[in-house]
Structure formats: C-alpha cells, structure tokens
C-alpha cells in the first residue's frame, strides 16, 4: 500500500476519533465541569465554568465539520 492510499484511512480514523471524543464530552459535561471545580463550589461557580465549556466544545465540532467536509483531491 502506498503512502497516498494510507493517508485517507488515517484521516478518516482521526476524524471519527475526534467525533467520538466530542460526543463523550457532551454526555459527561456536568462531570467534567465538576472536576475542574473545588470540592465545595457554589452554583454560581458551576454556572460560570459551564458557560466556559460550551465554546470549547463548539470549536471541536467546527474542527470536525471543516476537515470532514473539506473537498478531497483525487
């Protein structure tokens, strides 16, 4: 198998891995937010950190969309 033929499967597997990671992070978002807070946190601190997580997750989704839908040369 040549290098050119092996790049496409590697790129596909990388995009699928990113997609799985993003879905997993969305499902466990509350656990991830609580992990970055001290043991005794207030509701205001939780809401602040929760709103900070949303842009990072949206950036991951945009990354997958841009590189997943990019036109591939033949």
Automatic annotation (TrEMBL):
Keywords: Cilium biogenesis/degradation, Membrane, Transmembrane, Transmembrane helix. Pfam families: TMEM107. InterPro entries: TMEM107 (IPR029248). The chain crosses the membrane at residues 12-30, 50-69. It is a multi-pass membrane protein. GO terms for biological process: non-motile cilium assembly; protein localization to ciliary transition zone. GO terms for cellular component: membrane; MKS complex. It is found in: Membrane. The keyword Repressor does not apply. It comes from the Eukaryota. The keyword Membrane applies. This is Transmembrane protein 107. It comes from Chanos chanos (Milkfish).
């Amino acid at each position: 198998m040549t290098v050119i033929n092996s790049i496409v499967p590697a790129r596909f597997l990388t995009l699928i891995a990113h997609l799985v990671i993003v879905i997993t992070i969305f499902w466990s978002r509350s656990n991830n937010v609580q992990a970055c807070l001290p043991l005794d946190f207030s509701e205001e601190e939780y809401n602040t950190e929760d709103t900070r997580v949303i842009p990072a997750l949206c950036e991951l989704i945009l990354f997958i969309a841009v590189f997943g839908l990019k036109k591939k040369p033949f």
